[in-house]
Amino acid sequence: MAKTKKSWEKRLSGGPDEMAMNFVESLSYDVRLYKYDIQGSIAHAKMLSEEGLIEEGEFDVIKAGLLEVQEDIEAGRLEFDIVYEDIHMAIEAALVEKTGDIGRKLHTGRSRNDQVATDMRLWMRDEIDTLVAKIKKLQLAFVELAGKYTDSLMPAYTHLQRAQPIVIAAYLLSFVEQFSRDVKRLGNCREILNVSPLGSGAVAGSTLPLNRQSVAEKLGFSDITYNSIDSVSDRDFCAEFIFATTLVMTHLSKLAEDFILYSSTEFGFIKTSDKYCTSSSMMPQKRNPDMLELIRGKSGSVFGSLTAMLMIMKAQPSTYNRDLQEDKLHMFNAADVASSCVEMATGIVSNTEFRVERIAENLDDGFLDATSLAEYLVKKGVPFREAHGIVGGLVALCEKREIKLSELTIDEFHAASKAIEQDVFDSLGAENVVREYSSTGAAGASQAKERIAYWKSELS
What we know:
By secondary structure, the protein is mainly alpha-helical. It has three domains: 7-108, Orthogonal Bundle (Fumarase C, Chain B, domain 1), CATH 1.10.275; 113-158 and 167-361, Fumarase C, Chain A, domain 2; 370-459, Ribonucleotide Reductase Protein R1, domain 1 (Orthogonal Bundle), CATH 1.10.40. It has helices spanning 18-24, 27-30, 34-50, 56-75, 87-99, 101-104, 112-146, 168-193, 212-218, 228-233, 236-262, 290-314, 327-350, 356-361, 370-379, 384-401, 410-416, 430-436, 445-459, and strands at residues 153-158, 161-167, 195-196, 223-224, 270-272, 352-354. The longest helix has 35 residues, at 112-146.
């Protein structure tokens, strides 16, 4: 590609310094926007021809040239040179080389400022659609796994201490709910960003009769932006997108932490497939959950991208500044990490089994039925705070004697409260407790089966 001077160089004296060129370039990473840059350029050129700013025949030449450039990029025939700084100038230079002066008309009424803002929105729309599709596959993997364990029990934990018994399916479905919020957040982000800044120029718009609405419609935007000053510097959608991915990673990290604990010898609740584990270079017995640990670790990279994006945004005066060139690094990183981790999590969840018999061995340890006993007393007319104290005393008694609540005699129950009758034993033990869960959304079998049916319909 011929190294023609950039148009703005005529304003400056002397040639560009090589170190400065390397410092200022973004072509090494914004090249991934190429198809969106070409897509936006074709729509812009079509509008120019419709408004009589270029001839129809010139549009045909520009469109054909841009499509050839895209083919060259995708075939690996186009060698990029950082002298052109970014993907916008690199594509324009390649177009001019193919079409001559006609290609130089493409940038009429346009700045790289509104051009890159448009490219990023086009890219992000597709990226959100792709990420949402992957998250839904992960949700479906959870639903499928939950369907195997609607009648199998495990302890639920608060403060990492045993709390109440639940069906395993309810635990798995908790992640489906978390990721459903991520899907909604990403969808909301997509709706907000889906407006076209193209035609805003460098900062103040243009004296040329640009039909911005026409370009927006051609590119599938729902509307245009209505303030050129804000249009070229708005990166709220980048921060929102990265924030949405940080919550995806937060939920993935929680999953990873759970599964790492549950696969340990101390818990022994689950077994994940060997293909998502590694062994030790020294200890031959080891079976390490490295993929889960990496998901947990990679979350920090996305959190860092959010912090960096917010710092870029907060440190600038109004309208476009070159700092915004750095936004793409963090936007791309957040998207790439979240996407790869969602895919890995889907593979792990799809190949995990719960060791039901192992979990059942000590399921009643930890007084998981204490809350149920308190609620039993409430049903007998005892105020909850009084019931709470009665059960707390019974638990303390059982701890001293190293027995379970269900092993107390009816006389010992009577000594604690006259409200307790023989039917108390129907409320004790993990299986009895889970069977009695009646509130909507509770962690019982019937509620889990209902949500599984809902999610299968929703995700199909």
